[in-house]
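The material for today's practical consists of a large collection of protein records. Getting from the letters to the tokens is the skill we practise here. To make this concrete, we reproduce a full record directly below:
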Amino acid sequence: MKAVRVHSYGKRPTVDDVPEPTVSGPFDVLVQVGAAGLCRTDLHIIEGQWAEKSGVKLPYVIGHENAGWVREIGSAVTNVAVGDAVILHPLVTCGLCRACRSGDDVHCENSRFPGIDCAGGMAEYLLTSARSVVKLAEGLEPAAVAALADAGLTAYHAVRKAVPLLYPGTTCVVIGAGGLGHIGIQCLLAMTAAHVVVVDPSEAARDLARQLGAHHVTDRTDDLRDSAHVVLDFVGEQGAEAEGLAMTRRAGSYYVIGYGGKVDIPTIDLISTERNIVGNLVGSYNDLDELMTLAAQGRVTLHTRTYPLSAVNEAMDDLELGRLQGRGILVPSTT
């Protein structure tokens, strides 16, 4: 099968011929990939930012936002059948540790993360687990939802955690209306009564935020200092970190979702103002299942550009150079 593999950090991946994965365990699910989302994390992987954390052996197949159709199942799989359209939770989890048993499977003690620490889904087929597949509602196509598997899930997870803080009359500032942020805006509007303010330097991104229903859209942060009960930072680098903290009011919460930068604040300032800094990593299986309900209802949709798998580096160039609005979706040619 064709697959996108990283051979060396600092160099772009290549499309290689590799063996197809095979079902061997009772809970295995083989998925024909219908679409694989392109994420900024994929750029960070190539840069080597994840090398030490993941410990992955090169070369390997990247891609952690995947959806497609079930092609084969293990003997114990009962939640999906061959032919079902599915979206894949990005983690393969054990179901037995305390985190899994409490529904916090994103912190599974025995998880694998396809596309990060083992072979991922920028390929024609991906082997995963019955615990990771969410059956799509009728009418939802893999290419329309693939990026919700990580970008959407991460955005939803952050909003879900912030919901108790966003009662009527509160203000939530969203930094970045791009690939993650445009999903977060929709989740906020679907799940809260907060006043949603969006900050983005891109005119195209601001236009998209307005189309999605944001209450106020701007490219300036000066007037927003100390204004937000919650800040959702979908950028997390290039100065957004300092701006996000500055926009958070006393006893407010700054949610870090995008990454690459550094949060720097004197501890006395945290104590004296009781600001909270909250990290966010993907989301649980239940989060993804709930997000698929919003997608089926048409309350969360993706703005995407589709590329063939062979054009992965063109897509990466578009993402890196800011030419890609919304999410890039790679579609294998397998039929």
Notes: Residues 153-279 form a domain with the Rossmann fold fold (CATH 3.40.50.720). The first strand starts at residue 2 and ends at 6. Residues 7 and 58 are 6 Å apart (CA to CA).
